[in-house]
Model the fold of this input.
Amino acid sequence: GKPLNEIYNLEEEFKTDFITYKMSELQDIALEKRALIDKQLNELEYTKYTIKEQKSNFWPKVDLQLAYNRYDNKAEMEEHEAIFYAGLTYNIFDGPGRYYKVTAQKEALYASQKNLMEAKRTIRLEVNNAYRDIERSYANYNTAIHLVREGKINYEQALNEYRVGKGDIIALLQAEINYARSRITLIQQKMNYSIAISSLERAVNMKIL
Done:
């Protein structure tokens, strides 16, 4: 919606260098930096502590209490007493309940382990797909460079032939159109490659170029 005759400065330039990382390296980095993995690891640790908490109910509860009382108003009389209480309680009627609670938490632990494995698989797949897009976009970009070179050569040849009277205006215009289209395609492939890099950086959660 902006006027075409005005000049606008781009915030960044198109990226045209190929990345120096291997896909396996980027997958490992993504597993360290993605918040999804931290979330699943925290859930896994929480489930492990919950199992320990439920298992503790199998043991008796020990209650300890210390009481100290004084019965005089003067310090020199030293009429006082100290009482230590120790009690042991155990709920014998909740045996099945304790068992099923531990079993349920073990199932939750198994689910957390599966969720962690699935999160890792999903992230590796995202990085793999983004990396393949980069390879494809970079190959298309290099192809577009060759097409621009060929288009320029064909245009210059058609122009020279027209100047010496060996070519017609139609062939010259067609060569010029093909040359212009190849340059437009090159810009589009530069943009596609830059977008592919941004997608990979988002999958890895790290600046790559």
Summary: Residues 95-163 form the longest helix (69 residues).
